[in-house]
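User: quick one
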Amino acid sequence: MRTIRIGSGAGYSGDRIEPAVELAEKGDIHYLVFECLGERTVALAQQSRMKNPDSGYDPLLEERMRAVLPICASKGIKIVTNMGAANPLAAARKTAEIARSLGLPSLKIAAVIGDEVLDACKDGDLPIMEFDGSIKQLGNRLLSANAYLGAEPIAQALTGGADIVITGRASDPALFLATMIHAFGWAMDDWNLLGQGTVAGHLLECAGQITGGYFADPGYKNIPDLARLGFPIGEVGEDGALVITKVAGSGGAVTAQTCKEQLLYEVHDPTRYLQPDVTADFSQVRVEEIARDRVRVSGGRGTERPATLKVSVGYVDSYIGEGQISYAGPGSLARGRLALEIVRERLKLTGVAASELRFDLIGVDALHGANLAARGNEPYEVRVRVAGRTENLREAVRIGNEVETLYTNGPAAGGGVFKSARDVVAVASVLLPRELARPQVHFVGG
Amino acid sequence: MKLREIAHSRTGDKGNTSNISVIAYDEGHYPLLLAQVTSARVRAHFAGVVEGEVVRYELPSIAALNFVMTQTLGGGVTRSLALDAHGKSLSSALLDLEIEDDLST
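Assistant: Done. Structure below.
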């Protein structure tokens, strides 16, 4: 039976780079996939592209490509990535330029475009899933609409001979699934195979989160050498057989526990994990340690793909102003609480227009609120945090300022003020009939 | 004992919804999870955090539960005022849940 080895070189845009180099050098892999596109990143990238038409792709594209291209080219490792963000064509051209500068002019580079569906969403005035409203109601606050494309155009690019495929918005597991469809010729309606392939993609897409990252809990879940965490490799057979492993000698661990945690990460109903290519069913998945750092994962299934594609809609939501200040030593908790009361009253007195306010004591109740915090003991130090949502930047600035004035007007011995005010580009979702997105593959000159 | 003694957990986020897995270290403890880590108890544990519903999904093949909690992330990860906008730290809070120490089940 034929088997391919797929390395996962990044779990998010800012991820470590040297584990990807390690995968390319020592992982004996056929494909290296970089998943770098967060929910809101496309909207931010779109803003950047509006200012400069040649920008709008991942800021680390050049650094990543320079680090791995020479090794990948010499070993014939194909690269698939969504680092194209809001501008896959510009990312592909940039990558071609990097390849030439590295003396690798024959690399074939493809961009997958067609995830931009703003016009189709406007035409249909589609309803927003997260709150009452529709696309048109967002008016000029609307920035972008990008559909989660599936594996098909990526597989098509690979079959067309691409060494590097760069997409914008695509489903994260689909970046991996595409390599399997290309390598094994899986039919696009073989739902059980596509479901098991989606299990593989889902397990690999967050890179270090399956090799021991986001996992360690000393005394309960010990993981060695997180500073040198190795990124995962999926060994996938033609029949969907899957083993998760990593480069021998790298940090971290692949265990049944790390695989189970990642299997359910960001999953809702496990029998219906909605993807552009399949409705995957994780509910019968089995996980089995077969050797050190080798875990077999089987039993992924699937049913017919949804009739709609999920679309991430980026829009200007609001502004957030924030201020922080610290108190320490005896009585710090009481002084922190007093500080919060003062700022609460000051925001009222001075008429700061905030639609939502939040008063936290970091170290006490900032993460889980007052109910769960009531179980804890008094800390040595606390950090006051006030955050509020406003309609404009001027109002947002006033929130941090009211925290800052605690220096000379608030409780004794407050220090270390931090303040910020920023606009918030948020993301909501709509469902677009799938035939309204028309993905295309473009090859750029090598 | 605490849930932490028999299970591990990971939080994920999508929009304003948080999901928390609860996975038995020892598959023999799965019935204990089924019986004691109910949607109602999780909802009560996160009073003041979860503003929507808590739905529990069961995965006997890996001895795990998956809790899906709506209206939990301050209006959504991308617009939340919270320090931990993703709610990544919620799994640790759930592991503090008290479990009746009847390991004969």
